[in-house]
Specification:
320 residues, alpha+beta, two-stranded antiparallel ribbon, globular
Length: 320
Amino acid sequence: MEKIKIDLIDKKILSELDKNSRISATQLGKKVKRSREAVKYRIQQLVNKGIITGFITSINPNILGYYMFKVYLKLENISAEREKFFHELKNNKDIYWYGICDGAFDCVFAIVSKSTTEYFEKVNLLFSKWKHLIISKVLGTMVDTRQYNKKFFLNETSGDSVIFGGETLNYKMDELDSKILFVLTNSARIPLLQLARKVNSSIEIVRGRIKKLEQKKIILGYRIAVDLNKLGLEFFKAIIYFKTLTKKDEKAMFEWMRNHPNSLYYIRSLAPWEVEFEFAVENYLHFNKIINELRQLFPHVIRNHEHLIMSYESWLPAHH
């Protein structure tokens, strides 16, 4: 795919939208020193070109009583069956996220469930149905995930993060909360008036409900999904096996990832490995350079690593 060239103003707009995709065009205009109309036009152009593929609300399912489990699969090379399988994942209400990849695995997905028993039954049903396609599987439990704002637009070396997962609570939402979340999940930039009409409520009530969902850490933030290929980038996942890890080492790793211009996610798991680091990079050589830097910084920590090149990913949290 040919890289689409964008100027510095577009990069600044993308960076700000990823920090808060609900920012108003007026506020965004002030930040990038352009008029409200110019900013709105540029956003629409970025959407039209397919660079921005969505305005997404980050939701923490753990606060709502869900555990998040991870499934890693090697699949038979039967393209028609693979397509059917991916279509089923996309329409499965229990799937929070899934990715198609090359490397150590062919497919990775996160499945949410209220209990380990429920998860066991759901996943076994899926494996039984697709046993002819699944060569091997690895199962894991997500402890937590640090999601970093996309710093690569401006090659920034200091970033913010939000944390998914962690302690599982059981916050009960009412019907209005659920409707608001359902709309916001994949339409984070929807104007408040339009959102209020969609959920059949008033602007004041909806504004108050959103604020409460943010305070409860159910809504973690508003960001953008982008097509990395159109920006000349690739999405790599590093699966890291540790020798040992002290609290001091872990804190240093958190900082290193938070400030790395290409970092996307730091995922802690109960799996055969300990963590997964995700990066937006120019190519495999760029990714390899980052991993070598990591190994040099933490030689006493890192035992081994594997990698995945993610060719496609989809967030599906609106099912809940």
